[in-house]
From TrEMBL:
It catalyses: ATP + protein L-histidine = ADP + protein N-phospho-L-histidine. The chain crosses the membrane at residues 25-45, 324-348. InterPro entries: CHASE_dom, CHASE_sf, HATPase_C_sf, Sig_transdc_His_kinase_HWE. PROSITE patterns: CHASE. It comes from the Bacteria. Keywords: ATP-binding, Kinase, Membrane, Nucleotide-binding, Phosphoprotein, Transferase, Transmembrane, Transmembrane helix. This is histidine kinase. Residues 88-317 form the CHASE domain. It comes from Novosphingobium pituita. Its EC number is 2.7.13.3. It is found in: Membrane. Gene3D superfamilies: CHASE domain, Histidine kinase-like ATPase, C-terminal domain.
């Protein structure tokens, strides 16, 4: 019967789990899951970082927009002041214009302002008279010219230049400050001959307030080759009225270089990363770019805003500088996640190995418990069989003994035969025992000396423990009988013990005596204890009949015994390991 520990082990389901059958699945699964969580975290960090950068870019765009509006409004205020002053005078004299410009101090071109000018409305018929008066006043080279005479524009146009609303008149530049060599080339240019400038002047006259023009190239550097810019114009009306309508006397204006105007509006704090800033005239398009800062920057993180400046819609695009593929926090998170995933994978691998080893240990303990229970049952069976044999030997010996000494002597010999065979079984750990070893052990006392002859021969045949005990007892009885009455009792006697395989599961052992005393027929008819022991007890244990014959030449006995293979006793082999 199994013990409590063996029963507990046998009740456990020791079948390997799925993670034992696939030892790499669990570590790889843990690694993949940990890295998936890490990548999700990195994605969230990068998304938050992107939103933060967009917020910073939007803040910078707001500051740039505010700077543009502030500078546009301040310059528009200058133009309003000039228009209000010039409207109160019957004419704009050079001294009045110069005095006003000196007070404004607009000669600083750091903000993109190229100066301030006055352009007077002149009817076509008054052009020769205006040119004559200006030359007499000191401008000896003064000539009113149109856009068609500028390099890059083929064709000719009348000096009047433009036709507006069905009335033809020119708007030549009369004064332009600061008065330097560059600006002196602009004196006499008819701004009404340029469609861009004319459109701005028409809108300013209609709204009676400062209006910015569209994108243009400043005339002084060659109309198509100069820097891009724009002008801001403000109409000046006279005090007289014609039919209730205001009389346009001219325009006061300011030319701007777009790049300088944009630079002056950028935030003063340059401690952060540079930003790409692009200012467009209206919609964002390559041909409508007014100015840009850091045009080489392209990252895709863009903020677009619309700006209304002096009645003109501009487009502002702010783009952040390219950054690393991943932010520093994302890199640290990724590296930490990779480290944790690797450690968890290694830990899962170690735990998996430990679980497998523990399961093998449990299986080994269960096997050992089963072996122990089997050996206990086997030992109980062996002891019972041995005691039964001893009791049978005692009973038969007592019936055949004539006195106490003969009883003790016979019993002692048979007990010693059992003991010798037990010693063999103990040495083999109650495994298989060779036939030859059992026979030689029992015949050892009779095979000594030169006068006695015992021939033992046969193949390697293994016996089960019970069969070895029975064979040893039979050989002991035959040897004892031969020593007392048969071939071993005389010097010329000879005993031959030979065996051979009789089939796949049996072996035949032949005991033959020759050269001993002749056997009395009366002895052959009497059945002694040895005969009963061999034919009853041994035959019963070996599960095969025993052929015992008392022939005149000597005793002849044939035993058929079962043959056991070593594989039948694998449980003991397992116990040895």
């Amino acid at each position: 019967m199994q013990g409590p520990v063996g029963k507990s082990f046998s009740e456990k389901n020791l079948a390997p789990r799925w993670y034992e059958r696939f030892p790499r699945a669990l570590p790889i699964g843990i690694f993949v899951l940990t890295m998936a969580v890490t990548l999700v975290s990195v994605f969230a960090i990068e998304r938050a970082e992107h939103q933060r950068q967009i917020a910073q870019i939007d803040k910078a765009a707001q500051e740039i927009t505010a700077g543009l509006e502030r500078r546009a409004n301040s310059n528009a205020a200058f133009l309003r002041s000039a228009a209000a002053l010039f409207a109160t005078r019957s004419s704009v004299e050079p001294a009045l214009f110069a005095s006003f410009v000196d007070q404004l101090r607009i000669e600083d071109s750091g903000a993109g302002v190229k100066g301030m000018g006055w352009a007077m409305r002149v009817a076509p018929g008054d052009i020769p008279m205006v040119e004559r008066v200006m030359r007499e006043g000191g401008a000896r080279q003064f000539t009113i010219y149109s856009i068609a005479s500028v390099p890059g524009h083929a064709g000719a146009a009348p000096s009047g230049g433009a036709t507006r609303g069905g009335r033809g008149y020119a708007v030549p530049i009369m004064y332009l400050a600061p008065e330097d060599a560059r600006n002196r080339r602009f004196i006499g240019f008819d701004m009404a001959s340029d469609p861009v400038r004319r459109m701005a002047m028409d809108r300013a006259e209609l709204l009676a307030r400062p209006v910015a023009s569209g994108l243009l190239h400043l005339v002084g550097d060659g109309h198509r080759g100069g820097p891009t810019g724009f002008i801001m114009v403000m109409p000046v009306f006279g005090s007289a009225h014609e039919g209730g309508k205001r009389v346009l006397r001219g325009f006061v204006f300011m030319p701007f270089e777009a790049a300088g105007f944009l630079r002056a509006s950028l935030p003063a704090d340059d401690s952060g990363e540079p930003l790409a800033v692009r200012l467009y005239d209206g919609q964002e398009a390559p041909g409508r770019l007014l100015a840009s800062a850091h045009p080489e920057i392209h990252s895709g993180r863009v903020v677009r805003r619309g700006v209304e400046l002096a009645g003109r819609h501009w487009g502002l695009v702010v783009e952040a500088a390219p950054s690393l593929v991943l932010s520093m926090l994302s890199m640290m998170t990724l590296l930490f996640g990779l480290l944790v995933a690797t450690l968890l994978m290694a830990l899962a691998r170690l735990v998996g190995h430990q679980v497998a080893e523990d399961r093998l240990a449990l299986a080994w303990f269960e096997q050992q418990s089963s072996i122990r229970d089997s050996l206990t049952r086997e030992l109980n069976h062996r002891v019972k069989n041995t005691l039964a044999n001893v009791l049978s030997i005692i009973a038969l010996t007592r019936r055949r003994a004539t006195d106490l000494d003969s009883f003790v002597e016979s019993l002692e010999g048979r007990i010693r035969a059992l003991s010798a065979t037990h010693d063999l079984l103990t040495q083999s750990e109650w495994g298989t025992t060779p036939v030859g070893l059992v026979i030689r052990t029992e015949l050892a006392p009779y095979a000594q000396g030169t006068e006695r002859h015992v021939d033992i021969d046969g193949p390697d045949v293994q016996l089960a423990p019970n069969d070895a005990l029975s064979l040893g007892l039979a050989i002991h009885e035959l040897a004892t009988n031969a020593a007392k009455y048969g071939a071993l009792s005389v010097p010329g006697g000879r005993v031959s013990v030979r065996w051979e395989l009789a089939g796949n599961a049996t072996a035949r052992i032949c005991w033959e005596e020759r050269g001993g005393p002749a056997i009395d027929p009366e002895v052959r008819r009497k059945r002694g204890f040895g005969t009963d022991l061999i034919e009853k007890i041994v035959a019963h244990e070996l599960r095969n009949p025993v052929d015992l014959r008392f022939e005149p030449e000597g005793v002849r006995c044939t035993l058929v015994i079962p043959v056991r293979q070593r594989g039948n006793f694998a449980i003991r082999a397992g116990r040895k390991g």
